[in-house]
Design goal:
The chain is α+β, with helices and mostly antiparallel strands. Helix content is 30%, strand content 27%. It has 4 helices and 7 strands; from the N terminus they run βαββααββαββ.
Length: 150
């Protein structure tokens, strides 16, 4: 189970997308005291929009991070290049929980129907996006003693 929170910024700069993304990721990691691998930054140079998503193993830390980003002084204390001007910032407004559910479907004839049943059971209380990923093991009956994973 992981938790994510996303926010956005409007920036103006002449720097490359890679430079903007790396600079903001590094500045957020330093200021929020989190590891850079927990931050994903996407920059759209045509609109100046930066979307940042922070991942954590607990929701409470993301709520605290949202409050920190929402503070008036947050933008001014970020250590970013002078070539990046933050025009506005929107802190994360909520936390999303991501849960992976594994089901042994070895005795199920209609897998799609079973996925739908599980999604419907959870959908009463949560927003559910489901997808089926299948793992099967094929054993070669020929002369090669290998297992193939599909």
């Amino acid at each position: 189970m992981t938790y994510t929170a996303s926010g956005s910024m409007i920036v103006s700069t002449g720097l490359s997308s890679d430079m903007v993304e790396a600079s903001i990721e590094e500045a957020f990691a330093k200021e929020l005291n989190i590891h850079p691998s927990t931050i994903e930054v996407l920059y759209d140079a045509s609109s100046g929009t930066v979307i940042f998503t922070i991942t954590s193993e607990d929701a409470e830390s993301l709520v605290d991070i949202g409050e920190t980003i929402d503070a008036d002084e947050f933008v001014s204390i970020l250590d970013i290049p002078d070539d990046i001007v933050i025009e506005s910032i929107t802190s994360p407004s909520g936390v999303i929980v991501n849960i992976d559910v594994s089901v042994d479907a070895s005795d199920v004839d209609d897998v799609d129907s079973r996925i739908s049943d599980i999604s419907n059971a959870l959908d009463d209380e949560y927003t559910v996006e489901s997808e089926g990923n299948f793992l099967s093991i094929l054993i070669s009956l020929g002369p090669q003693p290998y297992f193939y994973f599909v």
